[in-house]
Amino acid sequence: MYRYPDFPDQVYIELTNACNARCTICATPSMQRKRAIMSLDLFRKIVDECGRHRARRILPFLHGETLLVPGVLDYFRYIRKAAPGTHVNLTTNGSRLNAEMAETFLQENLLDSLIVSVDGADKQTFEGIRLGLDFDEIRNNVLHFIKRRNELGKAAPRVCVAMVTVEENKHCRKQFEEVWRGADEVHFSVYFNWAGKLQNGGRTPHKINFCERIYHYITILADGRVAMCCFDSEAAYSVGDVKQHSIHEVWHSDAFNEKRAWLHERNFDRLKLCGQCDYINHPAWTAPLVRIRPYIQRTLPQLSSAADRIYKRWLIR
Q1: Do 161 and 118 contact (CB within 8 A), yes or no?
Q2: Where are the beta strands (DSSP E) in 124-235?
Q3: DSSP string across 104-146
Q4: Domain match, 65 and 208 both
Q5: Beta-strand relationship, 185-190 and 158-165
Q6: How many CB atoms lie within 10 A of CB 284?
Q7: Structural domain tally of the chain?
Protein backbone atom coordinates (compact mmCIF):
# COMPACT_ATOMS: atom_id res chain seq x y z
CA MET A 1 0.00 0.00 0.00
CA TYR A 2 0.95 3.63 -0.34
CA ARG A 3 1.57 5.77 2.74
CA TYR A 4 -1.29 7.80 4.13
CA PRO A 5 -1.45 10.54 6.81
CA ASP A 6 -2.07 9.73 10.46
CA PHE A 7 -5.42 11.55 10.28
CA PRO A 8 -7.45 12.22 7.13
CA ASP A 9 -6.73 15.51 5.38
CA GLN A 10 -10.37 16.03 4.51
CA VAL A 11 -13.35 14.97 6.61
CA TYR A 12 -16.67 14.71 4.79
CA ILE A 13 -19.60 14.78 7.21
CA GLU A 14 -22.98 14.00 5.71
CA LEU A 15 -25.46 16.07 7.71
CA THR A 16 -28.27 14.56 5.65
CA ASN A 17 -28.76 12.38 2.59
CA ALA A 18 -32.11 14.02 1.83
CA CYS A 19 -32.25 16.42 -1.10
CA ASN A 20 -34.83 18.72 -2.67
CA ALA A 21 -33.52 18.09 -6.20
CA ARG A 22 -33.45 15.09 -8.51
CA CYS A 23 -30.36 15.80 -10.57
CA THR A 24 -29.72 13.62 -13.60
CA ILE A 25 -25.97 13.57 -12.87
CA CYS A 26 -26.28 12.39 -9.27
CA ALA A 27 -26.80 9.01 -7.58
CA THR A 28 -28.87 10.43 -4.70
CA PRO A 29 -32.31 10.26 -6.41
CA SER A 30 -31.98 6.47 -6.77
CA MET A 31 -30.35 5.92 -3.37
CA GLN A 32 -31.83 3.02 -1.38
CA ARG A 33 -30.26 4.08 1.92
CA LYS A 34 -32.77 5.40 4.45
CA ARG A 35 -32.95 9.19 4.55
CA ALA A 36 -31.53 10.56 7.80
CA ILE A 37 -30.23 13.66 9.56
CA MET A 38 -27.09 13.47 11.67
CA SER A 39 -27.73 14.34 15.30
CA LEU A 40 -25.96 17.39 16.67
CA ASP A 41 -24.46 15.23 19.45
CA LEU A 42 -22.80 12.88 16.95
CA PHE A 43 -21.65 15.84 14.88
CA ARG A 44 -20.03 17.40 17.95
CA LYS A 45 -18.18 14.15 18.70
CA ILE A 46 -16.80 14.10 15.15
CA VAL A 47 -15.79 17.77 15.14
CA ASP A 48 -14.18 17.51 18.59
CA GLU A 49 -11.84 14.84 17.25
CA CYS A 50 -11.13 16.88 14.11
CA GLY A 51 -10.19 19.78 16.35
CA ARG A 52 -7.83 17.67 18.47
CA HIS A 53 -6.10 16.33 15.35
CA ARG A 54 -6.15 19.71 13.59
CA ALA A 55 -7.87 18.36 10.51
CA ARG A 56 -7.07 20.42 7.45
CA ARG A 57 -10.60 20.62 6.03
CA ILE A 58 -14.11 19.82 7.23
CA LEU A 59 -16.75 19.43 4.53
CA PRO A 60 -20.23 19.18 6.12
CA PHE A 61 -22.06 17.81 3.08
CA LEU A 62 -22.21 14.72 0.91
CA HIS A 63 -25.23 12.97 -0.61
CA GLY A 64 -27.90 15.49 0.33
CA GLU A 65 -28.57 19.21 0.61
CA THR A 66 -27.04 20.34 3.90
CA LEU A 67 -29.08 23.53 4.16
CA LEU A 68 -32.29 21.49 4.50
CA VAL A 69 -31.23 20.40 8.01
CA PRO A 70 -33.24 22.15 10.78
CA GLY A 71 -30.95 24.33 12.89
CA VAL A 72 -28.11 23.79 10.43
CA LEU A 73 -26.29 26.97 11.44
CA ASP A 74 -25.65 25.49 14.89
CA TYR A 75 -23.60 22.75 13.23
CA PHE A 76 -21.39 25.33 11.54
CA ARG A 77 -21.10 27.38 14.72
CA TYR A 78 -19.81 24.32 16.52
CA ILE A 79 -17.06 23.79 13.94
CA ARG A 80 -15.80 27.31 14.60
CA LYS A 81 -15.87 26.65 18.34
CA ALA A 82 -14.24 23.20 18.44
CA ALA A 83 -11.99 23.30 15.35
CA PRO A 84 -11.21 27.00 14.86
CA GLY A 85 -8.18 26.50 12.62
CA THR A 86 -9.86 24.13 10.19
CA HIS A 87 -10.95 25.23 6.72
CA VAL A 88 -14.73 24.84 6.37
CA ASN A 89 -16.11 24.26 2.89
CA LEU A 90 -19.77 23.91 1.96
CA THR A 91 -21.04 22.64 -1.37
CA THR A 92 -24.73 23.37 -1.92
CA ASN A 93 -27.31 23.58 -4.68
CA GLY A 94 -28.04 27.13 -3.50
CA SER A 95 -31.81 26.74 -3.24
CA ARG A 96 -31.91 27.39 0.53
CA LEU A 97 -29.20 30.04 0.59
CA ASN A 98 -31.69 32.84 1.13
CA ALA A 99 -30.87 36.35 2.32
CA GLU A 100 -31.36 35.53 6.01
CA MET A 101 -29.12 32.48 5.91
CA ALA A 102 -26.52 34.32 3.84
CA GLU A 103 -26.42 37.12 6.39
CA THR A 104 -25.76 34.70 9.26
CA PHE A 105 -23.04 32.82 7.40
CA LEU A 106 -21.33 36.11 6.57
CA GLN A 107 -21.78 38.00 9.85
CA GLU A 108 -20.59 35.04 11.94
CA ASN A 109 -17.75 34.02 9.57
CA LEU A 110 -18.95 30.42 9.43
CA LEU A 111 -17.42 29.49 6.05
CA ASP A 112 -14.02 29.68 4.41
CA SER A 113 -15.20 28.60 0.97
CA LEU A 114 -18.52 28.02 -0.74
CA ILE A 115 -19.18 25.97 -3.86
CA VAL A 116 -22.54 26.24 -5.57
CA SER A 117 -23.32 23.44 -8.02
CA VAL A 118 -25.24 24.99 -10.91
CA ASP A 119 -24.59 22.94 -14.09
CA GLY A 120 -26.23 25.32 -16.53
CA ALA A 121 -25.90 28.83 -17.92
CA ASP A 122 -29.58 29.30 -18.71
CA LYS A 123 -32.92 28.28 -17.27
CA GLN A 124 -33.69 25.56 -19.80
CA THR A 125 -30.32 23.80 -19.54
CA PHE A 126 -30.14 24.12 -15.76
CA GLU A 127 -33.66 22.90 -15.05
CA GLY A 128 -33.24 20.01 -17.49
CA ILE A 129 -30.36 18.69 -15.36
CA ARG A 130 -31.22 19.90 -11.84
CA LEU A 131 -34.79 18.70 -11.71
CA GLY A 132 -36.96 20.38 -9.09
CA LEU A 133 -34.86 23.55 -8.76
CA ASP A 134 -35.47 27.05 -10.10
CA PHE A 135 -32.61 28.69 -12.00
CA ASP A 136 -33.71 32.26 -11.31
CA GLU A 137 -34.06 31.65 -7.58
CA ILE A 138 -30.60 30.13 -7.29
CA ARG A 139 -28.97 32.79 -9.43
CA ASN A 140 -30.53 35.50 -7.25
CA ASN A 141 -29.42 33.73 -4.06
CA VAL A 142 -25.82 33.38 -5.21
CA LEU A 143 -25.51 36.91 -6.57
CA HIS A 144 -27.00 38.33 -3.37
CA PHE A 145 -24.53 36.31 -1.28
CA ILE A 146 -21.57 37.66 -3.27
CA LYS A 147 -22.92 41.23 -3.24
CA ARG A 148 -23.51 41.16 0.51
CA ARG A 149 -20.07 39.67 1.21
CA ASN A 150 -18.47 42.45 -0.81
CA GLU A 151 -20.55 45.12 0.96
CA LEU A 152 -19.28 43.80 4.29
CA GLY A 153 -15.70 44.03 3.02
CA LYS A 154 -14.99 40.36 3.64
CA ALA A 155 -12.55 38.20 1.70
CA ALA A 156 -14.20 34.96 2.82
CA PRO A 157 -15.87 32.82 1.95
CA ARG A 158 -14.43 32.45 -1.50
CA VAL A 159 -17.32 31.63 -3.83
CA CYS A 160 -16.99 29.10 -6.62
CA VAL A 161 -19.77 28.30 -9.08
CA ALA A 162 -19.32 24.83 -10.53
CA MET A 163 -20.60 22.94 -13.54
CA VAL A 164 -20.28 19.22 -14.14
CA THR A 165 -19.66 18.93 -17.88
CA VAL A 166 -22.04 16.58 -19.70
CA GLU A 167 -23.52 16.41 -23.20
CA GLU A 168 -26.54 18.47 -22.15
CA ASN A 169 -24.52 21.51 -21.06
CA LYS A 170 -21.11 21.42 -22.71
CA HIS A 171 -22.33 23.79 -25.43
CA CYS A 172 -22.76 26.61 -22.90
CA ARG A 173 -19.37 26.71 -21.18
CA LYS A 174 -18.47 30.18 -22.48
CA GLN A 175 -21.92 31.45 -21.59
CA PHE A 176 -21.55 29.90 -18.12
CA GLU A 177 -18.34 31.85 -17.52
CA GLU A 178 -20.08 35.06 -18.58
CA VAL A 179 -23.22 34.49 -16.50
CA TRP A 180 -21.20 33.77 -13.35
CA ARG A 181 -18.34 36.23 -13.83
CA GLY A 182 -19.16 37.78 -10.44
CA ALA A 183 -18.00 34.64 -8.63
CA ASP A 184 -14.41 34.28 -7.43
CA GLU A 185 -14.03 31.12 -9.50
CA VAL A 186 -15.94 29.36 -12.25
CA HIS A 187 -15.11 25.67 -12.16
CA PHE A 188 -15.77 22.93 -14.71
CA SER A 189 -15.82 19.43 -13.27
CA VAL A 190 -15.49 16.05 -14.94
CA TYR A 191 -18.57 13.83 -14.90
CA PHE A 192 -18.12 10.53 -13.05
CA ASN A 193 -20.40 7.52 -13.05
CA TRP A 194 -20.82 7.23 -9.26
CA ALA A 195 -19.09 3.84 -9.13
CA GLY A 196 -21.25 2.39 -11.89
CA LYS A 197 -24.60 3.74 -10.68
CA LEU A 198 -24.86 6.10 -13.67
CA GLN A 199 -23.89 5.71 -17.31
CA ASN A 200 -20.79 7.42 -18.67
CA GLY A 201 -19.07 6.80 -21.98
CA GLY A 202 -15.85 7.92 -23.56
CA ARG A 203 -13.51 7.65 -20.57
CA THR A 204 -10.25 5.73 -20.77
CA PRO A 205 -10.64 2.17 -19.37
CA HIS A 206 -7.18 2.22 -17.76
CA LYS A 207 -7.35 1.98 -13.97
CA ILE A 208 -4.49 3.14 -11.80
CA ASN A 209 -4.05 1.61 -8.33
CA PHE A 210 -4.25 4.81 -6.32
CA CYS A 211 -7.25 6.86 -5.26
CA GLU A 212 -6.91 9.89 -3.00
CA ARG A 213 -10.44 9.21 -1.75
CA ILE A 214 -9.26 6.33 0.45
CA TYR A 215 -5.79 7.64 1.24
CA HIS A 216 -6.61 11.23 2.20
CA TYR A 217 -10.40 11.61 2.68
CA ILE A 218 -12.84 10.05 5.11
CA THR A 219 -16.56 9.86 4.39
CA ILE A 220 -18.87 9.84 7.43
CA LEU A 221 -22.53 9.20 6.71
CA ALA A 222 -25.50 10.71 8.54
CA ASP A 223 -26.03 7.56 10.63
CA GLY A 224 -22.37 7.44 11.72
CA ARG A 225 -21.16 4.71 9.41
CA VAL A 226 -17.98 5.36 7.45
CA ALA A 227 -18.20 4.54 3.75
CA MET A 228 -15.07 3.53 1.90
CA CYS A 229 -15.32 6.70 -0.19
CA CYS A 230 -17.79 9.36 -1.29
CA PHE A 231 -18.84 7.32 -4.33
CA ASP A 232 -19.96 4.47 -2.05
CA SER A 233 -23.35 6.13 -1.63
CA GLU A 234 -25.04 2.99 -0.26
CA ALA A 235 -22.20 2.19 2.17
CA ALA A 236 -21.76 -1.18 0.48
CA TYR A 237 -18.14 -1.16 1.67
CA SER A 238 -18.54 0.29 5.15
CA VAL A 239 -15.24 0.38 7.05
CA GLY A 240 -16.47 1.40 10.50
CA ASP A 241 -18.86 3.46 12.60
CA VAL A 242 -17.89 6.65 14.46
CA LYS A 243 -20.68 6.10 16.98
CA GLN A 244 -18.63 3.15 18.26
CA HIS A 245 -15.05 4.12 17.38
CA SER A 246 -13.00 7.24 16.86
CA ILE A 247 -12.21 8.58 13.39
CA HIS A 248 -8.55 7.74 14.02
CA GLU A 249 -9.41 4.12 14.86
CA VAL A 250 -11.55 3.70 11.76
CA TRP A 251 -8.92 5.39 9.56
CA HIS A 252 -6.27 2.87 10.68
CA SER A 253 -8.61 -0.12 10.94
CA ASP A 254 -8.02 -3.50 9.35
CA ALA A 255 -11.24 -3.05 7.37
CA PHE A 256 -10.04 0.20 5.79
CA ASN A 257 -6.52 -1.08 5.13
CA GLU A 258 -7.94 -4.20 3.53
CA LYS A 259 -9.74 -2.02 0.95
CA ARG A 260 -6.57 0.02 0.34
CA ALA A 261 -4.63 -3.21 -0.22
CA TRP A 262 -7.22 -4.53 -2.67
CA LEU A 263 -7.01 -1.32 -4.69
CA HIS A 264 -3.20 -1.36 -4.62
CA GLU A 265 -3.33 -4.91 -6.02
CA ARG A 266 -6.07 -3.94 -8.52
CA ASN A 267 -8.14 -6.72 -7.02
CA PHE A 268 -11.41 -5.60 -8.57
CA ASP A 269 -13.00 -9.01 -8.10
CA ARG A 270 -13.16 -8.24 -4.39
CA LEU A 271 -13.42 -4.47 -4.76
CA LYS A 272 -16.27 -4.41 -7.26
CA LEU A 273 -17.21 -0.83 -6.44
CA CYS A 274 -13.84 0.42 -7.69
CA GLY A 275 -14.00 -1.94 -10.64
CA GLN A 276 -17.14 -0.14 -11.81
CA CYS A 277 -15.89 3.36 -10.94
CA ASP A 278 -14.37 5.65 -13.55
CA TYR A 279 -12.87 8.11 -11.06
CA ILE A 280 -9.62 6.11 -11.09
CA ASN A 281 -9.62 5.77 -14.88
CA HIS A 282 -6.57 7.74 -15.97
CA PRO A 283 -3.89 7.38 -18.64
CA ALA A 284 -0.94 5.43 -17.23
CA TRP A 285 1.39 8.44 -17.38
CA THR A 286 -0.73 10.30 -14.82
CA ALA A 287 -0.36 7.70 -12.04
CA PRO A 288 2.65 9.25 -10.25
CA LEU A 289 1.14 12.73 -10.58
CA VAL A 290 -2.16 11.59 -9.06
CA ARG A 291 -0.32 10.07 -6.10
CA ILE A 292 1.53 13.28 -5.23
CA ARG A 293 -1.48 15.54 -5.88
CA PRO A 294 -2.68 15.68 -2.23
CA TYR A 295 0.76 16.80 -1.08
CA ILE A 296 0.96 19.48 -3.78
CA GLN A 297 -2.52 20.65 -2.78
CA ARG A 298 -1.27 21.13 0.76
CA THR A 299 2.06 22.81 0.02
CA LEU A 300 1.52 24.54 -3.35
CA PRO A 301 -2.24 25.08 -3.67
CA GLN A 302 -2.03 27.58 -6.54
CA LEU A 303 0.11 25.23 -8.63
CA SER A 304 -2.24 22.37 -7.83
CA SER A 305 -5.31 24.38 -8.88
CA ALA A 306 -3.70 25.37 -12.17
CA ALA A 307 -2.66 21.78 -12.92
CA ASP A 308 -6.15 20.51 -12.06
CA ARG A 309 -7.76 22.99 -14.43
CA ILE A 310 -5.44 22.04 -17.30
CA TYR A 311 -5.94 18.30 -16.79
CA LYS A 312 -9.73 18.57 -16.44
CA ARG A 313 -9.92 20.72 -19.57
CA TRP A 314 -8.08 17.90 -21.33
CA LEU A 315 -10.44 15.26 -19.92
CA ILE A 316 -13.60 17.10 -21.00
CA ARG A 317 -12.23 18.35 -24.31
Answers
A1: yes
A2: 130-131, 158-165, 185-190, 217-220, 225-227
A3: HHHHTT--SEEEEE---SSHHHHHHHEET--HHHHHHHHHHHH
A4: yes
A5: parallel
A6: 10
A7: 2
- Find the CATH number of the domain harbouring 200: 3.20.20.70
Domain span holding position 250 = 10-284
Strand 22-23 with 130-131, pairing:
antiparallel
Cα–Cα distance measured from residue 193 to residue 204, given in angstroms and rounded to the nearest whole number: 13
In a domain, 260, yes or no: yes
Q: Within a domain: residue 3?
A: no
In a domain, 43, yes or no: yes
Say whether 251 sits in a helix, a strand or coil: helix
Q: What is the pLDDT of residues 9-58, one digit of tens each?
A: 999 999 999 999 999 999 899 999 999 999 999 999 999 999 999 999 99
Entry pTM = 0.89
Q: Do 274 and 291 fall into the same domain? A: no
Contact yes or no for 237/227 (Cβ under 8 A): yes
